[in-house]
Write a structure and sequence with these properties.
By secondary structure, the protein is α/β, with parallel strands linked by helices. Helix content is 18%, strand content 42%. It has a six-stranded mixed beta sheet, with no helix packed on it. Strands 2, 3, 4, 6 and 9 form a five-stranded mixed beta sheet that branches.
């Protein structure tokens, strides 16, 4: 039979595993929308600080998109942004804004991540 301290360790471990799973695989957060002004691309700003905020962005398929990454940290994990579907890999300088432009040709979900694939986001083209 397990002692009380052993039960507490097992419960804490299970709680930590559940939190890690939720944080990296299930947390969605708010969904942002890129908006077009005039004849320019659909644009929105994404805050980079321990993750992407918002981590999901809705856009119109077939129209140019401009995402401005506002990196407000020096964590080496967030120093690169990768859009595999568009062949984009861009360095994000600390405490600066960096624009990334692409055009999703058809509706679908296009994922992006940091260079180590720990921070994740997605563009939802409709």
């Amino acid at each position: 039979m397990l002692a009380l301290d052993e039960l507490l360790v097992v419960a804490a471990g299970a709680g930590a595993i559940a939190w890690i799973y939720w944080y990296f695989f299930r947390a969605e957060g708010a969904v942002g929308t890129a908006t077009a002004t005039g004849a320019g691309p659909q644009t929105t700003t994404i805050l980079v600080r321990g993750g992407y905020e918002p981590a999901s962005i809705r856009v119109k398929a077939g129209a140019p998109v401009r995402l401005v990454f506002d990196r407000r940290e020096t964590n080496p994990c967030s120093e690169e942004i990768v859009f595999p579907d568009f062949g984009i890999r861009r360095f994000l300088p600390a405490n600066e804004k960096t624009a990334v432009e692409f055009t999703p040709a058809r509706p679908g979900t296009y994922e992006f991540s940091c260079g180590m694939s720990m921070l994740r986001g997605k563009v939802i083209a409709e």
